[in-house]
Design goal:
Oligomer: single chain
Low-confidence stretches: none
Radius of gyration: 17 Å
Number of helices: 4
CATH superfamily of the largest domain: Hotdog Thioesterase
Structural class: alpha+beta
Shape: globular
Order of helices and strands: EHEEEEHEEHHEEEE
Largest sheet: 11 strands, antiparallel
Number of strands: 11
Helix content: 10-25%
Distance between the termini: 43 Å
CATH architecture of the largest domain: Roll
Mean pLDDT: 95
Strand order of the largest sheet: 1-3-4-5-2-8-11-10-9-7-6
Amino acid sequence: MNQRVVVAQQFRGPPESGNGGYVSGLLAGYLSPLAAAEGVEVTLRAPTPLDSPMQIQVDDAQASAYVGETLIGQALPKKLALDVPHPPTFAQALSAQDNSPALDPTIENIVSGGVGFHPICFCCGADVAADQGLRVFAAPVPGFEGVAAAWQPDVAFQDENGFLPAEMIWAALDCPGQFAYLAEGIRTGLLGRMTAKVLSPVRASDQIVITGWCIEMEGKKHFAGTALFNQQGECCAYSKQVWIGRQD
């Protein structure tokens, strides 16, 4: 099966390419629910162009995105089991939000002149309107070994039944992994691989907690975990990520 898809400017991560979590979730969505039941691994091979068509090829339980001959990313089924730490409460995460790098006016940021670490990112950008970006502001929370965000999605991101589409869940799981390293004074590079498992639907009306924590470093590879919890405190999705950056 071959299809064409366009990642709109709204869904950018770096200024000129798509948000890694959103693009990963988009590719994962081309796999059958049966194939993706235990998890999906997405490897991002090249920056995702914005407002330009990509060709999606789906065969043998694998989805690949191309622009011309350039491979942008691949998704395939991958079992994922992750030791997910118990999260802070929504109130605890909200009380720590002002300490998020996403809101730090003094931090060296990716887009000069904006607010916070990555002002225009679809996931964590503070300069993005609430109906255009997710505004997931992860911050260190006392008593939790990692970061957490108190997230109330805008209704613009819900489907006709009031739930968050899978690509929005993947996008929301993205930046907290990087922010876990920022909390340790370590800047990672770009998201290279994301393996995620969505356990249950997520209501957009919920007060959601998203956590991120460091796992290990291997040279330039920074491994992180993230998880999303609904208003009842149930884990609805989690991911393991590989961020590629400088060796510290």
